[in-house]
Amino acid sequence: MKPAKRSLRSRRSPLRREARSHKAVYDGNHPEPLVSVIIPAMNEAGTIAAAVTEAKKVDSRCEVIVVANGSSDGTAEIAASCGARVISCAEPLGHDVGRSVGAESAKGEILLFTDGDLVIPAEQLRPFAAAVRRGADVALNDYSGPVGRHRPHPVVLSKHALNILLRRPDLKGCSMTAVPHALSRRALDTLGSGLLSSPPVAQAKAVMEGLRVVAAHKVPVGRMNVIRPKADGTDPLQQIIVVDHLRAVSLVLEHRGGRAGFGDGARRREMVR
């Protein structure tokens, strides 16, 4: 259980070191936003303008924060020209760290997360903010990934397994790993911005802390994601996500015991000799 704690600390400390090099550019956001739309982006010059444009339509009291994570293709400049508040990071901070950076800077009572490589229409983003307005603390994308395959994808399997372990099988494969999703300010205060860099761990803590976690609306992002070329046929992102789920499992076992709070069923261990 102790290794999981160390891994969480290691995720937070680089964030504090890099924060000094962020340059925030403020433009056309609402001065007192209700909704903060956070968009991490790394070299997404082709899609960032449309992503920001749709995000700005989510609410009349909206701010859009683009975290340009080590971009070198003009992503930051394009986002700023579209009216986003841009936090520019000179070096890549790592997968999902942009969510933590954006959350630290957000002013809204609702934090809505999407990605710079996805152009999701505003009408598909609003249901997540609406779910938080109705009392949800974590509003997830009601998308469980492809489940009809003979061999399920390791990431899809990890998401389903974690929710079962959390006693939330109703969530199926819904996960904070996927966008869009939204958090209440209460959820952010409970989880802390640093934990958002490891979405499965944040989700596990949210459930165990009694936050209201719901599947709010379905956006089939599996068909929208850009397929990136993979070196040597391997997918390093897959490994990162699976390891994050293992950290989440470790957290659950640490808090709920070796069987995660599940009983021993019909086993009669006293009969074993």
Throw out a few tags for this protein.
single chain; 273 residues; alpha/beta; Spore Coat Polysaccharide Biosynthesis Protein SpsA, Chain A; 8 strands; disordered N terminus
Walk me through the topology:
Layout: H1 2-18, E1 23-25, E2 35-41, H2 48-56, E3 62-69, H3 75-81, E4 85-89, H4 97-105, E5 110-113, H5 122-133, E6 138-141, H6 154-165, E7 181-184, H7 185-191, H8 199-208, E8 213-217, H9 236-256
Parallel strand pairs: 2-3, 2-5, 3-4, 6-8
Antiparallel strand pairs: 1-4, 5-7, 6-7
Helix pairs in contact: 6-9, 8-9
Task: Write a concise synopsis of the structure shown.
The protein has 273 residues and is of the alpha/beta class. It has helices at residues 2-18, 48-56, 75-81, 97-105, 122-133, 154-165, 185-191, 199-208, 236-256; strands spanning 23-25, 35-41, 62-69, 85-89, 110-113, 138-141, 181-184, 213-217. It has an eight-stranded mixed beta sheet, with helices on both faces.
